[in-house]
Specification:
Layout (H helix, E strand, L loop, with lengths): L2 H19 L12 E10 L2 E15 L6 E8 L2 E8 L5 E8 L30
Antiparallel strand pairs: 1-2, 1-5, 2-3, 3-4
């Protein structure tokens, strides 16, 4: 067995463990959707969940390494954050609304400001 085959088999086992354990159900996420990601933050000895809400502008990889990039505008400054979907730091992912887009990557939103950054809502897919 090559190294790639070994890695694929380990990833397949991990995905099966995640599906059977299903401690957190991930919704079907697409690019353009508005999501609220609950991120676990440790401050001192305490742990809390901080929500981060924004538009999914890209998705990468698949399987255990799947990531999403979420963009939001905070105090007039665009902030992007990359989340590893199967990370233990992600407490929850809640789908707020579906977006109707025609591209796989929405990097063009970086140059837009104000109302131009809005994405049309899609009604043909359930929340």
């Amino acid at each position: 067995m090559t190294a790639q085959e070994i890695i694929r088999s380990i990833e397949a086992e991990e995905i099966e463990n995640l599906k059977q354990g299903s401690k957190k159900k991930l919704p079907q996420i697409y690019v353009g959707d508005t999501v609220r990601v609950g991120v676990k933050i440790i401050e001192g000895g305490k742990e809390r969940v901080q929500p981060y809400e924004g538009t999914v502008i890209s998705m990468r990889n698949g399987g255990i390494n799947e990531t999403i990039t979420v963009r939001r505008v905070f105090q007039g400054v665009g902030v992007e954050r990359v989340f590893l979907l199967h990370s233990p730091r992600i407490a929850s992912i809640k789908l707020i609304r579906r977006g109707k887009v025609r591209r796989a990557k929405l990097y063009y939103l970086r140059e837009r400001i104000g109302k131009a950054t809005r994405v049309k809502q899609r009604f043909d897919r359930p929340l």
